[in-house]
Write a structure and sequence with these properties.
Belongs to the G-protein coupled receptor 1 family. The structure is a single chain. The chain is mainly α. The protein is built from twelve helices and two strands; from the N terminus they run αβααβααααααααα. It has a two-stranded antiparallel ribbon with strand order 1-2. The chain is globular.
Length: 358
């Protein structure tokens, strides 16, 4: 016996068939993280949801205190280096001028990512506004690429100091140092403007869940629903990686020349001084480049939320925190300047307290 179907049921059947056809013919972009958060386009997204770092409240609070300790250590280390170099006239040399800029960039870089992650862990939330996410992407790219450009400049400083010491004052005068530092900062600014403007002009329809503890541009691109715009931004990223590889080749060639010059030094004391000046910089470059390149060049089969989180933490949080230790452990001049600055501050504070009437 044939049963008649009501017009409303027929409409629901037709609608389900249409939507099933659409889903089968859609481009092979990543599946939405959750139907609840699926958005039609980027204009309707008012906020993003960052990765939850822990499942329980106790672990969230533990992570908050851990991140707070790392953040305070980075602030203290880079702040001491910046203050010591700025206040001690004996450190007003090109090498320490670039180190001052590096410390400032480390402070800015870690202050872009960690405070929001700490706030989310403390208040048991994962929200970040659309404008806040765009600002985080912009400033992180700005500071991270400016830092890499500065590390490239610092390798040139080491090369001139060891391979061409007689021309050091000519090639690295105050005007030349200021120009190179300004070029490093400007390069980071242009890089950040290009990527941020391109990434946030792409339509986003794969939800608003970012699988990272901060707004990382690679995770934002996973939310794209426009294949052509996605490919354009990925092309820009790979072009940037080619520039990064070019800078890395320049750094490697500089150190090849440096090590050849050091090995020809007749004095063991001279070799020790040269190595103590170059090895910290080489360690910082190796840590920075290896983690950043692995984060963006690893295959999709190796990608997982936990691995992505670990790698991003290594290249965005660890270098700013450990750079002061790497540069300060074997640098006696810097240690002495930091100690003098510390004791001078204590003495000045003690003198001001003695002058306060009781």
């Amino acid at each position: 016996m044939e049963t008649s179907m009501s017009p409303k049921a027929q409409s629901r059947t037709d609608s389900s068939e249409v939507f099933s056809n659409i889903s089968l013919s859609s481009p092979p972009f990543p599946e939405p993280h959750s139907q609840k958060y699926q958005m039609p386009n980027s204009s309707s997204i008012s906020e993003f949801l960052l990765l939850v770092l822990a499942d329980t409240r106790q672990l969230q609070l533990l992570l908050f205190w851990l991140l707070l300790g790392i953040y305070l250590a980075a602030l203290l280390g880079n702040g001491l280096i910046s203050t010591a170099v700025a206040c001690d006239h004996r450190l007003h040399t090109p090498m320490y001028f670039f180190l001052l800029n590096l410390a400032l960039l480390d402070l800015a870089c870690i202050s872009t990512t960690l405070p929001k992650a700490m706030a989310n862990a403390l208040w048991d939330t994962r929200h970040i506004s659309y404008a806040g996410c765009a600002a985080q992407v912009f400033f992180f790219l700005f500071f991270i690429f400016a830092e890499y450009s500065l590390l490239t400049v610092m390798s040139y400083d080491r090369y001139v100091a060891i391979c061409k010491p007689l021309h050091y004052g000519t090639l690295l005068g105050s005007r030349a140092c200021a120009t190179m530092a300004a070029a490093a900062w400007s390069t980071g600014l242009l890089y950040a403007l290009l990527h941020t403007a391109t990434a946030f002009s792409i339509p986003l329809c794969q939800g608003n869940v970012v699988d990272q503890f901060f707004c990382e541009i690679a995770q934002i691109l996973k939310l794209s629903c426009s294949k052509s715009d996605y490919i354009r931004e990925v092309g820009i990223i790979y072009f940037s990686l080619c520039l990064i590889c070019g800078c890395f080749v320049f750094i490697v060639l500089s150190y090849v020349q440096i090590f050849r010059a050091v090995l020809r030094m007749p004095s063991e004391q001279g070799r020790h001084k040269a190595f103590s000046m170059c090895l910290p910089h080489l360690a910082v470059v190796s840590l920075f480049v290896s983690t950043a390149m692995f984060a963006y060049l690893k295959s999709s089969s190796m990608s997982s939320p936990s691995l992505d989180l670990l790698v991003s933490f290594l290249y965005s949080v660890v270098p700013p925190a450990v750079n002061p230790l790497i540069y300060g452990l074997r640098n006696q001049e810097l240690k002495a300047a930091v100690s003098n600055t510390y004791f001078y501050s204590i003495h000045k504070m003690h003198g001001s307290l003695r002058g306060v009437p009781r």
